[in-house]
Amino acid sequence: MAAVDRSGEKGGGWAKGLADSSLYQKARRAASNSARFSQKLMWSTGKAAWIAGTTFLVLVVPLIIEMDREQQMVDLESQQAGLLGSSAPLPSK
């Protein structure tokens, strides 16, 4: 015995008709494609962030540390020159 929905149609009724419609299939395919694109985008973005972060740590942080040390040395030399009363010109920055 077939199920009868409120509209009097046999079969799955409005839900089956909706699932069989081309508009539903297109929307489902679009949602699936969007989800796949989002996953690939997130993976690529994460990979790019990892590369940028490690490159920054390996190349830029040591440079910043060395520049800070150099500035401290220049400041120390200028302090010592001021204390000793030296009239030697300060190195340009």
TrEMBL record:
> Can you say where in the cell this protein is located?
Mitochondrion outer membrane
Task: Show the InterPro entries listed in the entry.
Answer: Tom22, Tom22_pln
Family note? Belongs to the Tom22 family.
The topology of this chain with respect to the membrane is:
Single-pass membrane protein
The source's superkingdom equals Eukaryota
Q: What is this protein called?
A: Mitochondrial import receptor subunit TOM22
Q: Which Pfam families match?
A: Tom22 (PF04281)
Where do the TM regions start and end?
48-65
Annotated keywords? Membrane, Mitochondrion, Mitochondrion outer membrane, Protein transport, Receptor, Translocation, Transmembrane, Transmembrane helix, Transport
Question: Which source organism does the UniProt entry give?
Answer: Sphagnum jensenii
Query: Where's it mainly located?
Result: mitochondrion
UniProt entry tagged with the keyword Nucleus: no
